[in-house]
Amino acid sequence: MAVKIHSVEPHSHISGCDIKTGEYLVSINGNEIIDVLDYRFYQFSKELELVIRDLKGELRTINLRKPEYDELGLLFDTYLIDEEKSCRNKCVFCFIDQLPSGMRETLYFKDDDSRLSFLFGNYITLTNITEHEVDRIIKMHISPVNVSVHTTNEELRCKMMNNRFAGDVLKYLRRLCESSIEVNTQIVCCPGYNDGDELRRTLADLEEMGVNMVAVVPVGLTKHREGLAPLTPFDKEKALKTIKIIEDFSDMCLKKHGRRIAFASDELYIKAELPIPPYEYYEDFSALENGVGMIALLKDELSCALEDYEGDTSINRAVTIACGTSVAPFMRDMMDSVEEKFNNVNINVVPIKNEFFGGGVNVSGLIVGQDLIAQLRNKSLGDELLISSSMLRFENDLFLDDTSVEDVENSLNIKLTPVNNNGDELLLAILGKGSEE
Fold first, then answer.
1. DSSP readout, 76-93?
2. How confident is the model at residue 80 (pLDDT cuts 50, 70, 90)?
3. Is 62 within 8 Å of 29 (Cβ atoms)?
């Protein structure tokens, strides 16, 4: 195995070694290079011996010294260096299978790549991983690894993922934990499948294995489920019972380990019509990407930002915040505290109903541009429209329906500003000061 070199960074440590485009990096210090993890791990040594295969297929050796942890300077065709691994499962709850047709192609790709788990925090099912990759994670002590477990009942896991190997690979989860790899896990809870006693079993098994964290989120169902397995959405009663199981377990962990380990997502509390736990409850907020503790964190950050603010409080301004219907009441409550301090600031919080996905989808991150336009048109929006940056792709330019920020601005005749889930940034955006201040 070897990886093809695309180019060399100018003025890098390797730039004077006459590396040519199209040559291959075979190994570093005797370690075979297969992908980005090998390259990133082995390049950081002070003394390097690189084996290069040239354009004629002949091997040559390059020896060099550099400061430890400095980048070497080789560039490759893709970030991962090889192909991204797609998911082999057909999970009964898969959100991508519930997307409407006609969206951009990249949204239908199901990744299940252990390298993305380490590099970007993606959750993997372990059904794509090999013994070699597990050995490599342990050898390199790659941490954390994020795993979508859903259930530790092997037979049920096979059923839920429609993959006959889905149960057997749970052995890798135990190996990672036994090797002191930090493992964060998530459970997509589906009523009638992995809730109730099955959830209790899974939580107990994960605690016994020694995972770092468990996030439990309710299954998300859109209106586009034709031909898919029938699933029951969470109602208030189911959410209450599920939270009771999680909190009883987390209270036990707190007494036993000094920390909770397991957490319910904000959405479960909203469905149960329960208050969101306070900031202190969420410890290190290790499950934010699962929607766990986001409201508590934002509320605390905004409160601190208001307390620390020493600028002009006589600002005259009116803004609209568009958000998901589930978070709107909490956002309204937070905005009341802003208006108390800034008497001349008016904040209109508008819940946006998700017509595009329909079903029970009501979170801010899945709001699309066309729903914003349709529901805000002809309304008085003030000086600026604020939205969560989670509605947009990484480049902050397109919604999931390919509507652009510019499309929304032109349709509504207002400036649209995406804001991260951060209390300081939100306050500055409300006041029209921008995050740079």
1. ESSSSSSPPPBP----TT
2. low
3. no
Q: What confidence tens digit (pLDDT) does each residue in 240-286 have?
A: 999 999 999 999 999 999 999 999 999 999 999 999 999 999 999 99
* Residue 435 three-state SS: coil
Q: What is the pTM of this model?
A: 0.85
Exposed, middle or buried: residue 359 (CB in 10 Å: 0-12, 13-18, 19+)? middle
Full set of structural domains in the chain with CATH? 3-76 (2.30.42.10), 96-292 (3.80.30.10), 297-430 (3.40.50)
Question: What dihedral do alpha carbons 191, 194, 195, 196 form, nearest 10°?
Answer: 130
Least Cα distance to 219 among 98, 351, 369, 389 occurs for 98
Count of alpha carbons within 13 angstroms of residue 110, beta-carbon side: 15
Contact 172, 217 (CB under 8 A): no
Query: Residue 133 has what DSSP assignment?
Result: H
Whole-number Å distance between alpha carbons of 290 and 47: 41
Q: What's the pLDDT tens digit per position in 309-325?
A: 999 999 999 999 999 99
